[in-house]
Design brief:
Blueprint: H1 9-12, H2 65-76, E1 80-81, H3 88-93, H4 95-104, E2 107-112, E3 117-122, H5 141-156, E4 162-164, H6 165-173, H7 183-199, E5 203-205, E6 211-214, H8 224-238
Antiparallel strand pairs: 1-3, 2-3, 4-6, 5-6
Length: 254
């Protein structure tokens, strides 16, 4: 598999983020806007002309080139939405074939037609011969708490989910331990958390500003129980009820 500059969002917000598995998430509140640069494309558009063209010497695929490229996007990109005019219609038309190809690699295709986004996640294959394609990683508690804030901001304004860097920092300062006098160090941790969420494709910087767009897919990452667990845990840290250094805890890469 080719190297990827950004981790997939499910690699970061995987099962390892929380100590115990949570109940199944409720339907997303709003995931219609994933903010790709390309304009939207009508749902259900068929792209297959019936012709197969060879993409390179030795190409033996039975799928059209468009479906092959969409398959590559599903493996390499964190997620895609209906705003991606090239891949979204292809995913809908060839969902069955793409799902089968991904399954051969031990990956599961998740397609949300209501809110129009798709991504792949690692299947839990108990066989000792199975290989892990998507390596699982977790975020620091600070980044997780910031994700909670972004989730709340998205729900409040799903049509215009924009957040200022200063607002993110101010929100997180409310969680600073009462005995922590190093505000500059704390702000540095917050900025590190912002960068982590950017790298995980949860937020997207707006060029020339200090603002970020929040990807709608965040509503499928956190459910009600996880939101409450994060809030309670970080509030306890701010009150000094959690062990020292708890806010710095971070799981190692798998």
């Amino acid at each position: 598999m080719p190297d990827r500059s950004q981790p997939r969002f499910d690699e970061v917000f995987g099962a390892g983020l929380f100590p115990e598995p949570e109940p199944a998430s409720p339907p997303p509140l709003d995931a219609a806007a994933i903010f790709d640069d390309a304009p939207g494309e009508a749902v259900g558009v068929h792209v297959d002309s019936g012709e197969r063209s060879t993409r390179f010497d030795g190409d033996t695929s039975e799928l059209p080139a468009e479906a092959c490229w969409a398959l590559q996007e599903l493996v390499a990109a964190p997620h895609l939405s209906d705003r991606n005019k090239h891949h979204w219609p292809v995913v809908l038309q060839y969902e069955g074939q793409l799902r089968s190809r991904l399954s051969e690699l031990g990956l599961i295709l998740e397609v949300n037609r209501e809110y129009r986004y798709a991504f792949t996640r690692q299947a839990e294959d108990p066989s000792p011969r199975s290989r892990t394609i998507l390596r699982s990683r977790t975020l620091s508690l600070a980044a997780s708490a910031l994700a909670l804030y972004l989730y709340q901001q998205y729900v409040l304004a799903p049509d215009e989910p924009v957040v200022e860097t200063a607002d993110m920092i101010d929100h997180m300062l409310a969680y600073k331990r009462t005995d922590d006098t190093d505000e500059a160090g704390f702000v540095k941790k917050v900025r590190t958390a912002i960068n982590a969420l950017d790298e995980a494709a949860i937020i997207k910087p707006i060029k020339g500003t200090s603002r970020y767009l929040i990807y709608g897919v965040i509503t499928s990452i956190l459910n009600a129980q996880q939101v409450q667990a994060l809030h309670e845990r970080y509030t306890a840290i701010a009150r000094g009820e959690a062990p020292a250094g708890a806010e710095d805890s971070e799981a190692a890469d798998a």
